[in-house]
Task: inverse folding
């Protein structure tokens, strides 16, 4: 997301401000010589700036006074009077200060302030001749002296990576960036409320796991010294949540951090947030209805409409969504039914359509690559792609009426996948056979496969009821609902290479 203002930050945190930083340190020392603590412990704020506007009448009355706090974003005027702009987490407001209306120490303190300093202000409200709501300053306290200047408002550089690295500055100067993360919080709150109202129990499962699983992905590996054992950062929490279904919890969910040691692009970060939820006695049809209702609720509550804009597309999240079988979606693009196609036929189809197959192996890999290249980018309006081949879904239940397929769906919106759901496999013998098949595939050179998790199979052997399961990538959902086109725009601190040549 492009902010309204760009950052201008030089290479070294100490040198970043140059002479201006030196001048600010000089002012800091002068303030201390005056007996001013430039970093006090607290400030008694009576109103946020948004509350100031809401209570204008009371705070404009004669002899009224209130206390506000925030960051100075601009100062105008010289001599005996000045106007400035104060910004807090709720908004911004103009302030007015006159030397004759404050004590000498307060005025001297104000003259030593800079843009970026955080202050507490006491005063009343009034309207200027142009009608702008303004704080008339009667008292002022420095709360934090800023040593580094803020970016220039209109002449910043185009290096977005610096904006991600120094998100704290990005948030100060770009209100639209802050709003993205406020929206993210509202989305998560809405999801949690939606689940709680339907009797789902929020739980926590291990991040450090002795056996990774729940997805086909490369894990991060670490070592526990006291136990002298290898551990893996969680790639998914699916298998632990389904253990809880076995244990008797009938509806569970978790907002979880997952970690996958793989590539990075506009929709992938090695650390990301997932929602996973499981409901006993549901199947994937129930989950499709559930997803439609959830996405519509999120859009209504957070945005006030089910019609959203993403890039050049207007998308309607209102139900019902289209349901399109996996192989039928490929047939629409290739004219071929590939369900019974041999590996050679799959390879020929891919090459005919200009698909690069370097590093792609196995039947599942070929099918997935064809779908990803030919179908996925065109799935703009909400659609459930259903009934996947078994090769791509080692944890899903076999299709009740179609051989070689499983009861799985993925919702697609705006050309990318925004969820994954199954009728969960609860046959322990079938599950073991699929794990073992994954092992054989790995030995034959396939990419990441699902390892055999003996404890999970043991849990299934105690009996798991029919279950519907769902995973939603929270970061991608936020991208969609904020019209953001990089996952780094919706993660406060995305993974980045270390800075070179910078101390900061």
Result:
């Amino acid at each position: 997301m492009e902010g309204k203002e760009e950052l201008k930050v030089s290479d070294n945190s100490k040198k970043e401000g140059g002479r201006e930083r030196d001048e600010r340190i000089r002012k800091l020392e002068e303030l201390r010589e005056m007996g001013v603590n430039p970093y006090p412990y607290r400030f008694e704020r009576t109103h946020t700036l948004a509350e100031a506007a809401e209570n204008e009448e009371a705070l404009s009355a004669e002899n009224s006074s209130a206390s506000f706090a925030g960051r100075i974003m601009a100062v105008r005027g010289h001599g005996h009077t000045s106007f400035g702009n104060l910004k807090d987490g709720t908004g911004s407001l103009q302030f007015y200060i006159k030397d004759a209306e404050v004590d000498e120490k307060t005025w001297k303190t104000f003259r030593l302030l800079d843009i970026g300093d955080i202050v507490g202000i006491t005063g009343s409200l009034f309207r200027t001749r142009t009608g702008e709501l303004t704080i008339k300053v009667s008292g002022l306290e420095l709360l934090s002296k800023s040593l580094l200047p803020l970016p220039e408002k209109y002449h910043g550089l185009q290096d977005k990576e610096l904006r991600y690295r120094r998100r704290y500055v990005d948030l100060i100067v770009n209100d639209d960036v802050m709003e993205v993360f406020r929206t993210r919080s509202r989305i998560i709150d809405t999801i949690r409320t939606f689940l709680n109202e339907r009797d789902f129990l929020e739980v926590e499962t291990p991040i450090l796991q002795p056996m990774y699983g729940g997805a086909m992905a490369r894990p991060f590996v670490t070592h526990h010294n006291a136990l002298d054992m290898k551990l893996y950062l969680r790639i998914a929490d699916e298998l632990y949540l389904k253990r809880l279904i076995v244990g008797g919890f009938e509806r569970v969910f978790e907002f979880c951090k997952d970690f996958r040691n793989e590539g990075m692009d506009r929709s992938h970060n090695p650390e990301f947030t997932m929602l996973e939820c499981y409901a006993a006695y549901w199947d994937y049809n129930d989950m499709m209805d559930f997803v439609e209702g959830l996405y519509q609720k999120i859009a209504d509550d957070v945005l006030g409409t089910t019609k959203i804009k993403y890039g050049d597309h207007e998308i309607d999240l209102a139900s019902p969504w289209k349901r399109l079988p996996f192989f039928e979606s490929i047939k629409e693009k290739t004219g071929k039914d590939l369900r019974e196609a041999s590996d050679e036929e799959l390879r020929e189809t891919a090459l005919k359509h200009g698909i690069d197959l370097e590093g792609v192996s196995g039947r599942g890999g070929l099918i997935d690559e064809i779908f990803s290249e030919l179908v996925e980018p065109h799935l703009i309006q909400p659609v459930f792609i259903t009934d996947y081949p078994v090769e791509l879904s080692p944890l899903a239940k076999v299709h009740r009426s179609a051989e070689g397929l499983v009861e799985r769906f993925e919702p697609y919106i705006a050309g990318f996948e925004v969820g994954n759901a199954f009728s969960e496999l609860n046959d322990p013998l079938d599950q073991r056979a699929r794990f073992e098949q994954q092992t054989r595939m790995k030995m034959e050179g396939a990419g990441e496969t699902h390892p055999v998790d003996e404890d999970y199979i043991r849990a299934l052997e105690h009996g798991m009821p029919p279950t519907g399961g769902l995973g939603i990538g929270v970061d991608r959902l936020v991208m969609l609902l904020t019209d953001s086109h990089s996952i780094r725009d919706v993660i406060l601190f995305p993974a980045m290479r270390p800075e070179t040549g910078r101390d900061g």
